[in-house]
Structures are given as structure tokens and as C-alpha cells.
Design brief:
Two copies of one chain form a homodimer. By secondary structure, chain A is of the alpha+beta class. Chain A contains eight helices and ten strands. In chain A, about 40% of the residues lie in helices and about 20% in strands. Chain A has a four-stranded antiparallel β-sheet with strand order 2-6-4-5. A three-stranded antiparallel β-sheet of chain A has the order 1-7-3. A three-stranded antiparallel β-sheet of chain A has the order 8-10-9. Chain A is globular. The structure holds a DNA duplex.
Chain lengths: ~240, ~240
DNA sequence: CGACAACTTGACGGGCGTCAACCGGAGTGG
DNA sequence: CCACTCCGGTTGACGCCCGTCAAGTTGTCG
């Protein structure tokens, strides 16, 4: 059958197995998880700040972002997500969401009851380890983002965001530096890098003029991967083999 | 016996119990953990980027910070730590450190073998949950920091950092808004907020002139806690009761 | 009392935000 | 098939927040 018809949980086990070894019983445990599959339009809220969460959202197709709002109205995107990402693993143990998750393209998601996933983790230590490790990698990525918005200039920040997104897409089998479709708008890139969309536009142009990337609408081609990584100060160690 | 002579692990169990219920056997499991206690001077490296970690560092006394370095030489502090914090819980599952942890005052630490802590977590699900929850709260704090450096102006950033630090000190029984000793230099505040020490100094003065804080060397008094929280845009929900 | 780190303050400049106008493609409806 | 609309992208002018540089002060520890 075509990949898009596969079991929704396939992409989750695929990702977790790359992090931590799972045996046949672990895989069976995942496969047996009850879940409800839904297709939602771009802009749909998948997790809303302040709300008590009872189900975990698994992203099966499309892209999403996690963001927080400042009192002044500013929005900060703190991560992008793609096929196979569990969007709110933290709500297995934290009851109230401290941020929002929103679809940035049309998405397909699978809702898994929190209690079922928690029971599975308690029953099978290898699964608990894999999920824990996944959440630790998330935390590592957040640390890198603090560095990115705190200590790099605009061009580096954007380059870094691109490097990370490309590396993660590649790990998920969704593209390569040679040709990648960016799902996010320049305004979303701005919200992820702590800049404005106007300045993002200027910097993307600069990266083009430097011959580092080639742009054609939302399609991006990395003309010089080594140079992009250098400008970005990108060292994938912080992804902890999630992208290896 | 005086509190400072108590078992090193007391502060860890005290903190974790506030997050997640532990029974007598869980507490006994912690108490039985082998560990080596050490006193180290300010500036000592507790975790070093790129190094394979075999022991977990528990902070028993004093203060530490976690930081990353940019290629341009910039330093970004991504969190501060105090009594009772496990400094590298992430290395239970991630083998290589992606950042540094350094003492900012004289500290007392306890080194716990990774394998022992991991075995304990596997043997006692309540402990695994408590540790996992602790690391999820860490991640939540990182997300808030991304927002802080990405989307707030200098005065708010510093105010926010102060609010968080005070709230966490209070939770750890180390001070209150009425009188708190800041262990960090203005340069460290700058590295935590993505600013320069010069500008931190200007903003601290501004906060004083606004009548929000009163400074006397490293000693800080919050003159108007409500106003400080307002300026900081501080909503402690992201600490997930760690400070409740 | 000398040395050193941390703090303080002022002058100046630049990177990025703000504002505003315009363009271009995709979808929609007549 | 062509207007119309709308969202996202593009570009320029201008200004401010914060970085940089530099000099001086204060507190601490030997």
C-alpha cells in the first residue's frame, strides 16, 4: 500500500526506533494504541495554552509549529514539527499546556488518549526510555534556539533555522538540501527567529546574493551546504542523532 | 542536625516530591544511591560540551548556570540552577553533552553514577515519572526563555529573569522577594538575556528609578512585586508548580 | 595598599524595527 | 475569461534600541 495509507503510528515508531531500540512487543504495543485520525486545515489549533490536555496529538502528515505569546502581542515560535512528531509528549505528565501548537499547512493528526500512552510507557520500559529520550532531545533543541535568538545576528539565525529544518526533514525522509519545500511563511520564520518579516526578507535576499541558497517561491535549494552551515554556526550534535 | 549537614540527596527528594508523589520505598531508593560529595570553587566546570557523561551531578549548595557558546565567541546562558537541581538529568539517556554547566559561586555537588540512577528509575516507576516530569519542566522553562530573548525588550527580559529566579529560590527555600541575594554578575545576567553587561546595568538602574527594585550591591529587594511581574510579563504557569 | 574583578556612566554608531507603498500569484465569483 | 480580493512577498526611508568603546569608580582580597 502507498505510504500515506500506512498506519498512523508507523511514523512514530520509525522515529523512536532511530533513537532507542524497540523489540517486537514494543512495536506491537504501539500498533495497538487506540487513536482517532483527523484531517485539519492550516491554522487549526492542535494544543491551546492554558487548556487541560487529555489526548496526545501525533502529527501524521503536514507541518505544525509550537508558539508562545508575549503580553505586548509578539509571537515566538519555539519549534517546528513534521511527520512522526508527538506534539505534546510533555502533557503525559504536565496537565496544563503552557503554549500553543498550530498547523501551518493542512495536516493529518492522530489523537491518542493520554492514559493509554502512559500505561504503555509504564508497561514497557523501552518505550518509556524512547519517549523520555525524545523529550530530552526536544529540550536540547530549545536550548539551541535560546542561543540562536540570543546570540546570533539575523543572517546566522535564519541560516541556522534553515539548517535545522533541512536536517530534520532529511531524517524524516521529507527532502534534502538539494530541493526542499519550506512550509512556513517569512512571517513565521520571523516569529521563529525573533525578527520581523521585513528583515527576514532582506536576509533571505542577502543569502541568495551570497550564492548560498537559491529561492523559487517557497521552494528552496541549498547551493552551498558547507557555507550555509558555516554562516549558521550549525553543529548538529544538539539533535542527538535524531537526524543521523 | 543543621540542614546543611543533611544527606545530599535530601534536596533532590524534597524537590521531586513537590512534583510527583513518592512513597517510602521510593525515598529509600534515593537515600541508598551511592554518590561522592565534592566542594568546588566558583567557575568550576560541572559538565563540559562534547564530553561523554558517566555521572550525574546533583547541586547540593551554591549556584550554577548552563550555557552554550556561539562560534563568534558569544555566550548564552540557558538556565540557572540551585540547591536540589539535577544538573544533567538529560545525560541519563543522551550520552554526549551539548552544552556546559559551570558553577557561578562556590558549590557543593554530589556525583551519582548514571547507571545507578537509571536502574533506580527502571525499578521504581514513580521515580521515573518524577525525573521525567522534572526534565519536562526544564524544557518548558527553555521555551519561555526562547520567548524572553526573542520577543521582549531589554527591561522586560531582565525583569522576567529576576521574577523566575526569585520564584525558584522561594520554592527551594532560598529567599523571598523581600530580600534575595543574586549570585550572578551583571555580565552573567547579560549572557542569560542576550544583552550586554553595559545595557543590563542601564536597565537595572532604570528598574531602580522606576521604584520597582532596590539594589544594594548583589542584594536585591523587590519594592513592587506586582509591578515587576507586570513589566516582566511573568506568568509562572510555565514553571508547572515547581515553584508553587 | 596594590591588584583585580565587577560595576558605572557617557558618547557614538549600527543593526534591525517601523512605516508605508507596491507587486505578484492564487483563489473566487460574475 | 477577466475583474476583484487577499495574503504573502518585496523594497525603500527613517529612526531607535541596544552594542561598542572607553574611562572612571567601587569593593574585595591578598
Amino acid at each position: 500500500m502507498p505510504p500515506e495509507d500506512r498506519d498512523a503510528l508507523h511514523w512514530l515508531t520509525r522515529k523512536l526506533e532511530a533513537l532507542s531500540p524497540l523489540d517486537e512487543a514494543d512495536r506491537a504495543g504501539f500498533a495497538a494504541l487506540p487513536h482517532i485520525r483527523r484531517r485539519l486545515p492550516a491554522g487549526a489549533h492542535l494544543v491551546r495554552e492554558g487548556v487541560r490536555v487529555t489526548e496526545c496529538c501525533l502529527l501524521v502528515e503536514g507541518y505544525a509549529c509550537r508558539h508562545k505569546l508575549a503580553a505586548t502581542g509578539g509571537r515566538q515560535i519555539v519549534s517546528f514539527h513534521m511527520r512522526g512528531d508527538l506534539l505534546d509528549i510533555q502533557h503525559l505528565l504536565l496537565s496544563v499546556a503552557d503554549h500553543n501548537v498550530q498547523a501551518i499547512t493542512e495536516v493529518e493528526v492522530a489523537w491518542i488518549p493520554k492514559t493509554e500512552l502512559k500505561d504503555l510507557a509504564h508497561a514497557r520500559p523501552a518505550i518509556a526510555d524512547a519517549l523520555w529520550k525524545d523529550s530530552l532531545i526536544d529540550a536540547s533543541v530549545f536550548r539551541e534556539w535560546v542561543l540562536n535568538v540570543g546570540r546570533r545576528d539575523a543572517k546566522s539565525r535564519i541560516a541556522h533555522m534553515l539548517c535545522e529544518f533541512i536536517a530534520r526533514c532529511e531524517a524524516a525522509g521529507l527532502g534534502s538540501p538539494e530541493r526542499i519545500d519550506l512550509p512556513m511563511t517569512q512571517e513565521q520564520i520571523a516569529d521563529a527567529t525573533g525578527l520581523t518579516s521585513v528583515h527576514v526578507n532582506r536576509m533571505l535576499r542577502a543569502l541568495s546574493e551570497d550564492g548560498v541558497i537559491v529561492r523559487d517561491r517557497r521552494r528552496l535549494q541549498v547551493a552551498n551546504w558547507r557555507e550555509l552551515r558555516r554562516v549558521a554556526d550549525f553543529d548538529p550534535i544538539y539533535l542527538h542523532e535524531a537526524a543521523a
